Task: inverse folding
């Protein structure tokens, strides 16, 4: 039988078969070590082949094969830097939720996610959530960020899940697609999903006042069929995003504004550091490229983890070294 993984709890997989029925499935132990380096060999969205086995009165599925993936989103596992974690597979698009505060989403996180999604051929839409709660300065910051990312080709949408503002735009973009929603804990993913499909009634929790961070409500990624011919993958809140196996000479290709200019660099293998006649550095000096984007590029290139040291305000453009 062939089906799609709708939920994974680490050892059991909830799979929807081609005939629309759901089955609880597992994998055999040896399946885990066949060259699969991720902490989860099978992810939500994977298409798999499985057999049914009788165990007493119970019918259990056993996964035999993972079919080829069209794409997937992967990051370094928390506390397991040498291992990776596949968040989801076979995704048509990702909605990356961003909040200016409560909790803040920093450009380093945004850029790391965009690099990964571009490398693995997944379209990403930037969703600025909670716009009903911002003061003038915070609204200006959203407009500043939108200018940066729209200029390089990303779609940006301002949303208020609680006031249902622009939720219809998100729904229209989701038609006939599998969409994944990601972001830090507390950015309002679950509230937005509930606004899109109230019948799901997913659990939400308030922001923690102590750390201004969300409390994790989603433990595992899970896919849901929606009432308007769409599928949604709700994911756990992501604290940091470790970029996986990025070859340094290809990294710039995943920054669209760098990729567009590289043909004008003197050297084909220009890393946009101290090379002479570098079109990217020239554009940077002429303020045609955002310093925050270049800073993210350097951070990833140097293999540094996303830390508090880099979580600077986007207004701090004076650190131009």
Result:
């Amino acid at each position: 039988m062939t089906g799609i993984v709708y939920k994974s709890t680490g050892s059991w997989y909830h799979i929807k078969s081609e005939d629309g029925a759901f089955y609880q499935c597992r994998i055999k132990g040896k399946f885990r070590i066949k060259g699969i380096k991720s902490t989860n060999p099978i992810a939500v969205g994977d298409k798999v082949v499985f057999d049914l086995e009788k165990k007493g009165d119970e019918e259990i599925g056993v996964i035999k094969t993972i079919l080829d993936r069209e794409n997937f989103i992967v990051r370094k596992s928390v506390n397991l830097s040498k291992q990776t974690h596949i968040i989801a597979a076979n995704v048509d698009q990702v909605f990356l939720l961003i909040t200016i505060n409560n909790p803040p989403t920093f450009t380093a996180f945004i850029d790391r996610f965009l690099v990964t999604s571009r490398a693995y051929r997944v379209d990403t839409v930037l969703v600025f959530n909670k716009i009903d709660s911002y003061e003038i300065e915070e609204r200006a910051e959203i407009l500043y960020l939108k200018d940066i990312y729209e200029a390089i080709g990303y779609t940006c949408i301002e949303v208020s899940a609680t006031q249902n503002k622009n939720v219809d735009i998100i729904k229209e973009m989701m038609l006939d697609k599998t969409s994944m929603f990601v972001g830090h804990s507390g950015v309002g993913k679950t509230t937005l999903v509930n606004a899109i499909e109230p019948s799901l009634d997913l659990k939400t929790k308030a922001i923690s006042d102590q750390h201004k961070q969300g409390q994790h409500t989603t433990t595992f990624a899970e896919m849901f069929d929606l009432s308007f011919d769409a599928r949604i993958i709700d994911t756990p809140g992501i604290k940091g995003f470790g970029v996986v196996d990025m070859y340094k000479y290809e990294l710039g290709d995943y920054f669209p504004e760098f990729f567009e200019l590289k043909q004008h660099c003197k050297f084909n293998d220009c890393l946009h550091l101290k090379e002479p006649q570098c079109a990217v550095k020239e554009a940077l000096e002429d303020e045609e490229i955002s310093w925050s984007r270049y800073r993210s590029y350097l951070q990833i290139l140097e293999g540094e983890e996303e830390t508090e040291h880099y979580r600077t305000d986007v207004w701090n453009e004076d650190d131009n070294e």
User: Anything to note?
Assistant: Helices lie at 107-119, 136-151, 167-174, 189-196, 248-251, 256-261, 279-285, 291-301. DSSP finds eight helices and 13 strands in the chain. Residues 205-219, 307-321 have pLDDT under 50 and may be disordered.
